[in-house]
Every structure is written in C-alpha cells, then in structure tokens.
Write a structure and sequence with these properties.
The complex is a heterodimer of chains A (358) and B (227). Chain A contains 13 helices and 14 strands. With 358 residues, chain A is of the alpha/beta class. Chain A has a six-stranded mixed beta sheet with strand order 6-7-8-3-9-10, sandwiched between helices. In chain A, strands 2-1-4-5 form a four-stranded antiparallel beta sheet, covered by helices on one side. The longest helix of chain A has 17 residues. Chain B is mostly helical. In chain B, α3 packs antiparallel against α4, α4 packs across α7 and α8 runs antiparallel to α9. In chain B, 43% of the residues are buried. The chains are: A alpha/beta (358), B mainly alpha (227). Chains A and B meet through α2 and α5 of A and α8 and α9 of B.
C-alpha cells in the first residue's frame, strides 16, 4: 500500500545540512496498522509527512496505492491526498466551523449533492460516536471528541490510508485507549491501512501489527509486533519495550531495596520471558516437581499482543547447581527466553554481605 | 433656552450649519471610499505576503522580499509629506490635487501598506496546523486562502480593520490641512485660522462620534465571529 524507498530529508543550508531522515525504506501492506516509534527529534513526523508529500523528500521514492507520488502534477497530488487521511496531535480543526462544517470541508467539489454531503456527515459522525455534537463548535468539545471529529473529517473522502501523527499524545490515558479502539475498529471494518507515529510504546502495543523503531533519522529495527517485542535486537528497541512492559522499572524497584531480596550466593536472579502457547503450561510447577528447583517470583507481567500472550517473570531460582542447569535447558527447550541477571545479583549479594559485616 | 445656549456658545457653528453637515458627509465619504479601495488592495497584498512568506503555502522569496521592503518604505513616509509628494500622481488620476476626491488618492496610498501589514499579522494568527491539515486534505492554494485563511482569520481581520479605519479617520483630518475637505479642513480653515474655537470643538466631537461608532461596530463583529 505504501512503499518508501531510500527516503532522505535534509533541512537547512547546503553548508550546514541537518539530516532529519536518512536512507529509510519501509513498506506498509494493505490492512496493516503500522507503528513508527521513536523519541522526539528522531525524524518520525518528518518521515510520515513524506507519505503525502507535506514534506518533499530530498531523495528517495514514495509509492502510495501504486502511484509514484513524486511524479504527480500538483492537481494529481491533491487528488491523491484526498485518499490519504491524516490526523494530528493538536487535532487542527477549524474553529470557525461547526463539527458538521469541519467534516464537510473536504467534501466540496467531491461531486456529492448538498443532501448527500449532509448524509455523509451524519454517517461519519455516527461512525465516530459523536452524532449529538453535529452543530457544536470545536471549542465546545473535549480533546478526545475533537480527535473523533478529526478522524471523521479524515475519513470523509473514503481514504485507503490514515496517517496518525502523535494523534493520542495530547490525550489522557483513558481517552487514548478509546481513540485507539476506534482506530482498530476502523482498521477492521473499513480495512483501512493505518500508519501511527508515536513516542509511546503503549500505543503500538495496543493496536499495531507491525512496528518500526526510529533513532536519529534512521529506522534501526522493524518487523511484526510480536517478534519485535519478544526478540528486540537494538538497545533503543529494548528501552521502548521496557517502557511498555514495566519490567525494567520493576527490576529497578526491587534492586533498590536489596534487603527485601532473600538472594543467597548460589541463587540465580533471572528474567524469564515467554511467548504464545507456552503461557498455558505450568512451567514453574514443572521446575519444582521435576528438577527440585524452587522459584521465587518477584514480578510478573502478561501482555496480549495481536492475540498472542507475551509473559515476563522476574524470579530467583534456587536449588542444586546441576539441577538448575537442567531446569534452564528445559526452559530453553520450551522456547522460553531466560536472561540471567548476573551483575545485578552480584550487587545485591555484595550489599547484603556489607550489611552483615557492619 | 436651548437655542439661546447654542447661540451664545456655538454662534459660529449655528451660522454655518450647512457647511458643518457637508464637511461631516465629506469625511464619511473619504473614509468609506478609501476603506473599500484600500481594504481590497490591503487584503490582496496581505494575502500575498502570507502565502509567499516564510513557511507560506507558495513560498517565493523574491516576491515576498520586494513587497516587504515596498511596504516598509511607504509606511515610513510621514503622511503629510507623502500627500505633497504624490501630487503629480493625484493630478494624473483625478485631474486635480484639491478637494475631497483628490484626497482619496493619498489616503489610499497611505492606508494600503499599513492595512496590508495588519492583514498579514492577522492571517499569521491562523493556526499553521490547520493550514497543514487543509493541505493534507488536498485543498488548492486558492481554496486554502478563501476557505481557511480568510474564514479562520475573520476575527483578527475585523479587529485590524476597525483599527485601520480609526487610523484612517485621523488621516482624513490631516488631508483637510491641504485642502482635502471634510471635518479636518473645517476645524483648521474655520476654527483655527479664524479663531472660531466652537467650530473646532464640534468638528472634534463629530470625528470622535465616527471613531466610537467604528470601534463599537468592530467590537460587535469580533464578538459575533469568534467561537
């Protein structure tokens, strides 16, 4: 549906160029909800603007719905843009028009009669659940309602693609979830392809099936959501995932209270993560009954990503070293990733020894 | 009682009632005609400044810089000097350099650059995000000008228009100084030169009346258009 090839965007003068986006290639298939995640300044907003050419790339190729966007004449580009909806962080509604006026704005010259436009506006408002606000002005709406109007407006010309530029970043968590579930519903009902730009991994986790991670103008890692979440390769990807799963926070919290940890010299502190069907097996019980390795669970978390459960457990494993080794290989055979936190556990043990001496 | 009061304190005004009324109408005529012509020119130039300016929808450095400098220069010339400076041009257009119709030309030249700058500032108040959204929806530059800039910017446009009209009323009084007619002329030719200070007072009150009405109308429209 969308193919970006070797996209580069350079700002500034020739002698002091600022490369906002460099050598980015990615492809979004029809029906995808594609997340592009990165910190502010990573170049993700610039990148998404190259899709509808609000930002012309300095180099590279943009193909949307089979059309080479950079080869279009101005009038053809405007026609192509009507099929690419876009919503924004600050909604960008027109304050001088009512909700109905805003939604009808892109429908002028669409060939629809006045009555057809009225009907379409009513249908779109029903779709986003705001039928009662048809004659309200944007200033009378809450943030979440404004974004719903913006979504209805973006959908007015029945686009194939919806671009979301930090669309939930100005909303509170509860409203964010309701907007995301609306987007998900639109994705399923209208088979709308959605590209989401965000700095919140929570958003990606909630609705995306594919994700690309951006840093310094580059896409450092991309792939389908579950594999990125379960096997992240880059440091920044791991950082983002941790912000969504809270494993790091939990680990930090636990380690900041070493007195609470009953960690002995030969115990193993580990982070166990597992994906999919393994979640339904009683792993911990098996460790105990089969290998006589006792497991002390310090923290646990299960996420459902794309209907796939992904679990994280922070545990202390104690038992005979040989048995522990067998237990670990058993876990590996079950496709459960075990990350042994050697350095952290050493710190805790050192701390405890110091306390004993004093 | 009332007529006695008027005869005592406003004897000169009473004597030239018709002239006062005529001057009042002349001032209104100059203000309205200039407002319409300079209004159209100013909005046109203001729009060009905004769309060709930095981050505009049709960026064009050459047009923008030229217009920007042009406006700066014309705004810097004091009005009373400019009136005399463009006398040849006024003669060419109107045929004479004296009278109300002749005053219209310098008034337009004096008001348009000021108003163009005001319009530019008013339109720059329109949220750039809304302009971007309109572009993303496939609006053409003309559509963005008429359906977004002028509509979204209506409230600040009205605000700067009422400011410009009040400014313009001041200029018409000055135009009176070199024979432009109107209340300014009346106050100077009669009130000042012939020591008829009651005429000056009445001319002032009438000018204030026009200013207050313009201001009130502006405020009312601002209130009505802002949501």
């Amino acid at each position: 549906m969308i193919t970006l090839k070797d996209i580069g965007v350079t700002f500034g003068s020739a002698n002091a160029p600022i490369k906002a986006v460099e050598e980015v290639s990615l492809s979004v298939d029809k029906g995808d909800v594609y997340g592009i995640v990165g910190y502010s300044g990573a170049g993700k907003s610039t990148l998404v603007r190259t899709i509808n050419l609000l930002q012309r790339p300095t180099s590279g190729k943009v193909v949307v719905a089979g059309q080479d966007m950079l080869a279009l004449k101005p009038s053809e580009l405007r026609a192509a843009r009507k099929k690419i909806g876009m919503i924004f962080q600050h909604f960008n509604l027109m304050d001088s028009r009512t909700v109905a006026g805003n939604i009808a704005y892109p429908l002028r010259k669409s060939g629809l009669s006045k009555a057809d436009i009225q009907q379409k506006v009513a249908d779109l408002l029903e779709l986003v659940g705001l039928s009662d606000k048809i004659n309200a002005f944007p200033s009378q709406l809450s943030g979440g309602q404004k974004q719903r109007v913006a979504i209805a407006r973006a959908l007015a010309n029945d686009p194939d693609v919806l671009l979301c530029d930090e669309a939930t970043s100005a909303l509170d968590p509860k409203t964010t979830l309701s907007i995301l579930s609306l987007l998900k519903e639109l994705n399923e009902r209208l088979s709308l392809t959605i590209v989401i730009i965000t700095h919140e991994m929570q958003v990606v986790k909630e609705i995306c099936n594919k994700v690309a991670v951006m840093e310094n103008g580059h896409v450092v890692e991309d792939g389908n959501l579950v594999s990125i979440f379960t096997q992240p390769k880059e440091r920044i990807t791991k950082e983002f995932i941790n912000t969504a799963t809270h494993v790091d926070q939990a680990l930090e919290k636990i380690l900041s209270h070493p007195t609470l940890l009953n960690l002995q010299g030969d115990d193993t502190l580990a982070n166990i993560s597992y994906v999919g069907s393994n979640t339904s097996e009683p792993l911990i019980a098996t460790l105990s009954s089969q290998f006589h390795v006792s497991t002390n669970i310090l923290y646990g978390n299960v996420e459902i990503l794309q209907e796939t459960p992904v679990g994280n457990l922070l545990v202390i494993l104690s038992g005979e070293p040989a048995q522990k080794q067998k237990a670990l290989s058993y876990l590996a055979s079950k496709n459960v990733a075990v990350d042994i936190l050697t350095s952290q556990s050493e710190k805790v043990i050192q701390f405890r020894q110091k306390q004993k001496i004093s | 009682m009332m007529s006695q009061f008027l005869n005592t304190y406003f004897s000169n005004v009473i004597k030239i009632q018709d002239e006062v009324l005529e001057s009042f109408i002349e001032t209104i005529y100059m203000v309205l005609l200039t407002a319409v012509i300079a209004g159209i020119l100013g909005i046109f130039l203001g729009i060009i400044l905004v769309v060709t300016g930095p981050k505009g929808i049709l960026v064009n450095k050459r047009i923008y810089n030229f217009l920007d400098q042009f406006i700066n220069i014309f705004r810097s010339i004091p009005f009373i000097i400019m009136m005399t400076l463009i006398v040849p041009f006024t003669r060419l257009v109107v045929g004479t350099s004296i009278g109300t119709s002749a005053a219209i030309i310098p008034l337009i030249v004096g008001t348009t650059p000021f108003f163009a700058r005001q319009i530019q500032n008013a339109l720059l108040e329109v949220d750039p995000g809304v302009i971007e959204a309109a572009e993303a929806m496939g609006s053409s530059p003309l559509e963005i000008i008429f359906r977004v800039y002028l509509k979204e910017g209506l409230t600040p446009i009205i605000r700067v228009s009422s400011l410009t009209i009040i400014n313009l009323i001041g200029l018409t009084a000055m135009a009176g100084a070199i024979g432009g007619g109107g209340l300014g002329n009346l106050a100077i030719a009669r009130g000042y030169n012939r020591f008829q200070s009651d005429v000056t007072l009445v001319a002032t009150l009438l000018i204030l009346l026009i200013v207050f009405i313009s201001q009130a109308l502006g405020n009312y429209l601002v209130k009505k258009t802002s949501h």
